[in-house]
Amino acid sequence: MNALAILGVMVMTAGAVFLAFAGLGLYRMPDTYTRIQAGTKATTLGTILTLVGAALIMPDWGVKLLLIALFLMFTNPLSSQVLARAAHRAGVPATKESKADALAEDREELA
Amino acid sequence: MSTLMQGLGLVIALATIGAATLAILTRSTVTAVLAAGLVSLLASVLFVVLAAPDVAMTEAAIGSGLTTFLFFFVMGRIRRESEK
Amino acid sequence: MTDTLLLPAAIAALALAAAFWRFLVGPRPVDRVVAFDGLTIIAITGLVLSALASGRSIYLDVALVYALLSFLGVIVAARYLEGGEQ
């Protein structure tokens, strides 16, 4: 086991820790919007770190892993945005601690 | 089969059973469709753990992608027709 | 090699359990879609881990198909839920 593989396992562990934080956010957050925030941003970083770690352990698989990472970088923020818009249009209430709702203000201005 | 694969298979199998139970017990149609999609997604990971990647690819494509897409498409059509 | 991967696998299993709990209890359908998205991404990590543990690169193709189709499912579900609850 060479130095690169040890580094790869460390990076993979860091990515798994970020995934665990995302799971903790999904478990603990008070309303839908904060859960979207926790469940899509942190998982993107965690998965990409895991893929980088896998590429360090197995350098021959680099192209395929890069393809998966690129794909996740494109699709994950997109699904986060679509989900947040769907929740807002369906009238899901935010938690009482939230201070502002810029999308609702823009809607009122346009209407 | 290594310890990692055994542990992964056990965790995924338990989650599959939980999702299938939710799909049976829930009253909401959307939740049932989502839970059925999750069952086939987790089942495809289980197929990979059992060293059948081609079966897993088919399960992910048909079971999760096409079936979930079709269910939501048809439910949207039904809602639009009933609103008319 | 495989034994050193047990630590990230165990941490990812914790993340899977937490996201799955949100999928089970999530009061609204939107919460369940969010948990579904998180669960599929955690499962991609599981697929990469199993590819490393068995040393077969074809498992990564499954991860690619998986990422594509789970994204499609989330988009379709969100488009449906935009029309209102239930």
UniProtKB/TrEMBL annotation, chain A:
Task: List the transmembrane segments.
Answer: 6-27, 39-59
InterPro entries membership: PhaG_MnhG_YufB
Q: Where is the composition biased (Basic and acidic residues)?
A: 96-111
Question: Does this UniProt record's set of keywords contain Nucleus?
Answer: no
Domain of life, source organism: Bacteria
- Record Pfam families: PhaG_MnhG_YufB
Give the record's keywords alphabetically.
Answer: Membrane, Transmembrane, Transmembrane helix
Q: Which residues, if any, are the signal sequence?
A: none
Query: What GO MF annotations does this protein's record show?
Result: sodium:proton antiporter activity
Disordered: annotated span: 91-111
Name of the featured protein: Multicomponent Na+:H+ antiporter subunit G
Automatic annotation (TrEMBL), chain B:
Q: Which Pfam families match?
A: MbhD (PF13244)
This protein's source sits in the domain of life called: Bacteria
Q: What's its membrane topology? A: Multi-pass membrane protein
What Gene3D superfamilies does its record include? Answer: NADH-ubiquinone/plastoquinone oxidoreductase chain 6, subunit NuoJ
MrpA C-terminal/MbhD domain span: 16-80
What keywords tag this UniProt record?
Cell membrane, Membrane, Transmembrane, Transmembrane helix
A GO cellular-component term linked to this record: plasma membrane
InterPro entries the record matches: MrpA_C/MbhD (IPR025383), Nuo/plastoQ_OxRdtase_6_NuoJ (IPR042106)
For the keyword DNA damage, the answer is no
Location relative to the cell: Cell membrane
Give me the segments passing through the membrane: 6-25, 32-52, 58-78
- Please classify the protein's predominant subcellular localization into one broad category: membrane
Under what name is this protein listed? Uncharacterized MnhB-related membrane protein
Q: What is the lineage of its organism?
A: Bacteria, Pseudomonadati, Pseudomonadota, Alphaproteobacteria, Rhodobacterales
UniProtKB/TrEMBL annotation, chain C:
Q: Name one GO molecular function term.
A: sodium:proton antiporter activity
Tell me yes or no: is Transport among this UniProt entry's keywords. Answer: yes
Cellular component (GO) terms are: plasma membrane
Keywords from UniProt, A to Z, are: Cell membrane, Membrane, Transmembrane, Transmembrane helix, Transport
Residues that span the membrane, as ranges = 33-52, 59-81
Highest taxon listed in the record's lineage: Bacteria
Protein known as: Membrane bound protein complex subunit mbxB
Predominant place of localization? membrane
- The keyword Ribonucleoprotein belongs to this UniProt entry's keyword annotation: no
Species this protein is from? Tropicimonas sediminicola
Q: How does it sit in the membrane?
A: Multi-pass membrane protein
* Record localization: Cell membrane
Family membership noted in the UniProt record:
Belongs to the CPA3 antiporters (TC 2.A.63) subunit F family.
